[in-house]
Protein: GNAT family N-acetyltransferase
Organism: Devosia salina
Amino acid sequence: MKTLIVRPAQASDSARILSMRNEPRTRAMSLTTDVVTQDQHEAWFAKTLASSSRKLYVAALPAAPDAIMGVCRFDIAQSGDEAEISINLAEAAQGQGLSPILITSCVSLFQVHNPAIRTILARVRHENVASQKSFLRAGFQQDASPVEAGCLWYRLEI
């Protein structure tokens, strides 16, 4: 089974994360499809790294530990027991079965640092079949609620 090296994002990861975010397939499957500018990204990234309610992780293959190929974000709900996960896999790494590994690896690390979280939700666009399958393979179940036009929700009870 393939493994990934996962760690919290740091300031030096900013450019790579922006580059991955603006890849055409990523934009097409994102909830927000616009190109993100450098200024927008830098403001978002600084706020994200400073936030206590948002955790950002990056992943790489063991053979190339400095080559980030995946990003995973968790937004912690005000209740403190639930978080929403969002993933991004670099286009060059897609189609290799890495997304479920990215999800499970990041969830495991997130749990270590956030033991109060009992539920993780994922919001996936209807047309993003690859991500739907990835979340199911990572142990999530499709959730009937909340209902949102154009999206399906997946739930993982921890």
Notes: Residues 5-157 form a domain with the Aminopeptidase fold (CATH 3.40.630.30). The beta strands are 5-8, 54-60, 70-76, 82-89, 119-125, 141-148, 151-157. The chain has one domain: 5-157.
